[in-house]
């Protein structure tokens, strides 16, 4: 029989949307060492094994399963467990978990545009956001940041690069900031040319040299689109111009990003390539707790190197800058086109170089002057995805 003791006093209550993904499972790892943080709600897509173990380990009282195809299996499993909590299903389940009354912080670790609406709903309810879903700010940065200011909530970055910037900025004032120096590993195809890229397979692209991530983010890293999306995210998180964000390829992935101040000081945050560090920092901000991530040994790390990104071979980075500078809904168009193209590639319906070809076609087709309201963004998302699919072979 499933049983959960009562909630403890003096704890921070959090919920996670996307608990069975890469960031979600690493958040659970952090919670194992954080006794003053209580998991009160969580969603999974279809991974019922993670759902079961999470309920048993963390006594989570509110859960959601978003894949309706596994609803019957989920109901049978939860009934067999004697689960005494509340269960939600489908897209409405994401919003339910994001807006739980008892949750103070919502970890948005779901990938893609699916995270936008529940994040907005959470902010409307006054929840602080531990943001791992970069697509939320890429597609609707102005809407989300304006709403966060209106509601007086914090958006705490979980991406390793944005967490590094966030931490480094504590060394000075925003008025003293000159540039953000955003680091990139370069992905698995650093140094390769377009002839090589024309033969890249899904299996090749999914082998990242430094980080263990979900499939979509790993492909984005290989095309440098992940860095382009992070440029847009940084613009909204830190209120800077695109001209003041520079990308540095740093193959060792030890320096997670840097900031340059007006006195020419450059402040960097270093650490092992381990997402538990930025997750833990976001959940405990402004405090630091004993480490979950492993200690960085600088003697073993050895030399740290930097290169300019190859913008001719990897077109996605400039596409992101151009979409950001264009304004309107163009970053939403970029994001939706990329999501759909990556999905088509992972399903073996297009080749590797077709990813950026499709994105470029979508950026040329859709009107940048459309006002970026939530309704317009969601409508553009549907139209862009349909157009992207129409360009796939077979």
UniProtKB/TrEMBL annotation:
1-deoxy-D-xylulose 5-phosphate reductoisomerase N-terminal domain boundaries: 14-141
Bilayer-spanning residue ranges: none
First-tier enzyme category under EC: oxidoreductase
Binding site for 1-deoxy-D-xylulose 5-phosphate: 134, 160-161, 185, 208, 221, 226-227, 230
Function: Catalyzes the NADPH-dependent rearrangement and reduction of 1-deoxy-D-xylulose-5-phosphate (DXP) to 2-C-methyl-D-erythritol 4-phosphate (MEP).
Family listed: Belongs to the DXR family.
Record protein name field: 1-deoxy-D-xylulose 5-phosphate reductoisomerase
Organism listed in the record: Youngiibacter fragilis 232.1
Gene: dxr
